[in-house]
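Researcher: Next sequence.
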Amino acid sequence: MESVLASLRFHPLAGTSAGAGAPPAGGGTSEWFCFAMLGLFGLFRGIYDSNLFASLFDVIKPQYRATATGLMLSFAFLVGSFSPTVLGYLKSRFGLSFGLASLSVSYLLGGVIILAACTLFFNKDYEGSKA
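Model: Next structure:
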């Protein structure tokens, strides 16, 4: 009997003409593959989270750090609170597999925004925080 984790199969382009014949879940059909990928996600998420506040505090003056931390966390929770609504809409319109896979676009968008912020503002903010 196939396990529940191994039976979860979806692809970001499933249900579209581009996704015809797409492998299930990126090709992962074994339970151990799913465990390994979840472990790697946890590792890299931990690396991200461990540097989150340190990088924020590098560019914020000490007297503003509590406010900056509160704003950053509030924004994160506010954006995250819309995720179930967006997923529900996508599920009813395109199916659950497409809905779950398409939420990864938020990670791509976040990466682009962080890259733009680093390119445009980091050097000025870092030098200003030393003053």
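Model: The chain has one domain: 4-130. The mean pLDDT is 77.
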